[in-house]
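Before drawing any conclusions, I looked closely at one protein, both as residues and as discrete backbone shape codes, quoted below without any editing:
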Amino acid sequence: MSAADALVLVVDDEPIARANLAHVLTRAGAKVDEAPGGAAALALLERTEYDLVVTDLMMEGVDGLAVLARTRELWPDTEVLVVTGYPTVETAVQAMRQGAYHYLAKPYDIEEARLLTAKALEKRRLRLEVRSLRERLKTKPEPLPIVGSAPPMLRLKRTIAQIAPTDATVLILGETGTGKELVARTLHLLSRRADERFLAINCGAFNEELLESELFGHEAGAFSGAVRLKKGLFESAPGGTLFLDEVGEMSLTMQVKLLRALQERVIRRVGGTRDLPVDVRILAATNRDLTRAVESGQFRQDLFYRLNVIAVSVPPLSERREDIPLLCQFFLAKAGRRLEKPGLSLSSEVLDTLVAYSFPGNVRELENIMERAAVMTEEHLVEPRHLPPDLRGGPVRVARPCDRELISLEENERRHVAFVLDHCQGNRTKAAALLGIDRASLWRKLKKQTETG
């Protein structure tokens, strides 16, 4: 919020001082009401919410502290700036403790007054934005969830909360399937642009010509088939957010054009001759190591710096295994609602299997597994047979030793158990199921093997 957008109340029982300050604020573009004393100010505050109240402290009758107290009571988000003479600086400090933004000591410099006014109004703007965001989050029927409480996820959530309200460009890094677009959508949802559009494009899904048209649009007749004007994504999300997924797959030529759009905040449609200003926040994501891509000449260094204003890393599922049970229940319940199968749950064997699994496809793979399990189960309990074949615990085949490596039956069993345990990443419950024995039998075999060396 700037002074040009603000409604300000100036309170002072000295007509000249009041008029001078009102003149300064009016010239800055503010709409200013004047009150010749504290009592008049209270009357105005009863019916009007101001963005800023600038009040003298030492006034006959109702003083500035009373004006401050009533303002805070009626309009908690209104900022108050107090004006005081040098002998009453201690009183001004007391006013700040009671909620005043700051104080101006007479005689004050006009530039100082402008600066403090601008800062107070900016604080109010941010306060109102935070309140608006909280209200939006309360009323959203299904807010975008980032599920997880593992330390890497808690750090990610704190980072998102810190950077979302800004307009900074964010580069989201992470393996395929970790949820980079979910992070981007959450950044948008928590930003001041949340009421505007969020548009996403996978830069690796288009060739150079189509990608340029998708991003920047084209004029009618720009190329064969361009029968009418088309606005690109930069134009289609005014005031909103544009998410460039797999930005590392862009050609070098497209990287140059994207760089210009980010630097100049203008775009030019394909076949066009005019630069068009755009207002959109850029979020980008990649699963590539862009630092190495820069070193190998596959990605422009200047574009990398432009995108990498703030980098956010989304951890792979293998680095937050403690979140797997929570994610399983979340996705299972989600699938159950869609399939009208409420109350689905996982057996302990299934949960052990999933916790031990490496999940090369990350969270996306886990969601697909839960979707399949919800479809396949006839009852409310998901069991190993409802998992994909490669996770079910089917027979594990071991290569038969060649004739030159004749070993005893006991040694063959030892190797076989070790192989199955390795296949199950040390999960004894899953290994026992694969071997067709219970956990106690497997424990005894391992204990015997350890004792016999």
